[in-house]
């Protein structure tokens, strides 16, 4: 395929960028959700592990101090607790008698006691208990000797160190996730830009063709995928348009040559002899231009015959043609010499009134046209119930271009129809 030529760059909000943003948002949400779940799971697993380790340590310590309680050796028990206090994050270790009295204890200097999670009566139970919160954990372990409970060991530990470790680990993970997202963003942008390059090129080529009307361009087909097949169909369409355009250009040249020979006939209505729609369009353009340039008032009347369809249906098209000729004659008899009366087609006429002294002069002309058409008309011995409804618009008061002025007069004519026909209405002025 031939090159498509110089193509303008993709717009700022392109398909590549939108897809990259969507994929990146999905990736970010997925990674953040995974991070939250992993951080939460890490915290609970680590806390459970530390709680289990504290329970094992408490049982070992309970076995060590059980003989000391039997022999009431408080000093040895305190020594054992002090040796055990080398354990990190330890807040309190306490040995209680079955009655709940403190036999020996070690407490950290900066200890903030945790709320008691077990009632004193639990000291006599044969099984231990444990509890954990966000701040710390507490373990109750019975001290037994030969199957008899001789006391209770209470162990309290802080979870500050564990929480700090989890937070540090989470911060590192979040930093790594951020870096991964940035890398993924660049990667997605490059990958999708490369993957969508044929589609972006096709879009730019379509914009170029629409702007320049150059249908000789062709898009490159890179791969036989969906975009490749779309490109092939697009090139086929361009080829057909190019052929059609060349054929149309040739026909237009032929018609232009023929049209020069019949230019005079082309501007005249064959039935009434009035200027036709083609002449009217050019004349309206010229008169509006002169009105705007000279600051002169001009008017356009859109005239529609009333009951013409009834005449055609009841008396036939030949009678309808005679009615149109008679209407054209009557209206021609009341207009000024410089006015331009045209037949637009069917039962529609238009009247251009240049160089008006004021709007009242046009309104008087509209009424004269209506009165002239309304005079009893007899065709082939039959009375024709023909009337005229007129819409009136002024330039440059209501509009200063042909299409707008014609539309304003057309709307005014419909207002006159709704008002009961056989009358005229002026175009409504826009509110200031």
TrEMBL record:
Transmembrane segments: 24-46, 166-185
GO cellular component, one term: membrane
Any one GO biological process: signal transduction
Pfam families linked to this entry: CHASE8, GGDEF, HAMP
Keywords: Membrane, Transmembrane, Transmembrane helix
Record domain HAMP: where: 193-246
The GGDEF domain, residue ranges: 296-429
GO molecular function: catalytic activity
UniProt xrefs under InterPro entries: CHASE8 (IPR033417), DGC-Regulatory_Protein (IPR052163), GGDEF_dom (IPR000160), HAMP_dom (IPR003660), Nucleotide_cyclase (IPR029787), Rev_trsase/Diguanyl_cyclase (IPR043128)
PROSITE patterns: GGDEF, HAMP
Record-linked PANTHER family: DIGUANYLATE CYCLASE DGCT-RELATED, GGDEF DOMAIN-CONTAINING PROTEIN
Official protein name in the record: Diguanylate cyclase (GGDEF) domain-containing protein
Native source species: Duganella sacchari
């Amino acid at each position: 395929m031939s090159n498509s030529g110089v193509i303008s760059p993709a717009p700022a909000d392109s398909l590549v960028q939108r897809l990259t943003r969507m994929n990146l948002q999905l990736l970010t949400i997925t990674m953040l959700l995974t991070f939250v779940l992993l951080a939460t799971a890490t915290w609970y697993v680590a806390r459970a592990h530390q709680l289990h380790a504290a329970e094992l340590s408490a049982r070992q310590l309970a076995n060590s101090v059980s003989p000391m309680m039997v022999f009431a050796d408080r000093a040895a028990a305190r020594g054992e607790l002090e040796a055990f206090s080398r354990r990190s994050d330890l807040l309190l270790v306490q040995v209680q008698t079955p009655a709940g009295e403190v036999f020996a204890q070690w407490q950290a200097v900066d200890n903030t006691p945790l709320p008691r999670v077990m009632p004193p009566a639990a000291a006599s139970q044969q099984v231990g208990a444990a509890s954990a919160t966000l701040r710390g954990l507490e373990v109750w372990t019975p001290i037994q000797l030969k199957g008899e409970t001789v006391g209770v060991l209470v162990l309290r530990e802080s979870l500050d160190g564990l929480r700090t470790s989890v937070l540090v680990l989470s911060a590192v993970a979040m930093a790594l996730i951020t870096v991964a997202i940035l890398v993924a963003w660049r990667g997605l942008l490059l990958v999708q830009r490369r993957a969508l390059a044929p589609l972006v090129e096709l879009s730019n080529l379509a914009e170029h063709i629409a702007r320049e009307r150059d249908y000789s361009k062709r898009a490159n087909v890179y791969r036989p995928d969906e975009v490749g097949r779309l490109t092939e169909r697009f090139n086929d369409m361009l080829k057909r348009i190019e052929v059609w355009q060349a054929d149309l250009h040739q026909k237009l040249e032929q018609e232009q040559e023929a049209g020069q020979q019949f230019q005079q006939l082309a501007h005249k209505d064959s039935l009434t002899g009035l200027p036709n729609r083609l002449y009217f369009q050019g004349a309206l353009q010229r008169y509006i231009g002169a009105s705007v340039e000279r600051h002169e008032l001009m008017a356009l009347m859109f005239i529609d015959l009333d009951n013409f369809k009834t005449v055609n249906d009841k008396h036939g098209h030949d009678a309808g043609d005679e009615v149109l000729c008679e209407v054209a004659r009557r209206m021609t008899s009341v207009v000024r010499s410089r006015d331009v009366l045209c037949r637009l087609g069917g039962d529609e006429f238009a009247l251009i009134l240049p160089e008006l002294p004021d709007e009242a002069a046009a309104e008087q002309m509209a009424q004269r046209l209506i009165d002239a058409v309304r005079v009893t008309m007899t065709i082939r011995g039959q009375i024709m119930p023909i009337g005229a409804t007129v819409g009136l618009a002024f330039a440059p008061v209501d509009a200063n271009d042909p299409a707008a002025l014609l539309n304003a007069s057309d709307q005014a004519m419909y207002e006159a129809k709704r008002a009961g026909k056989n009358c005229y209405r002026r175009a409504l002025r826009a509110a200031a």
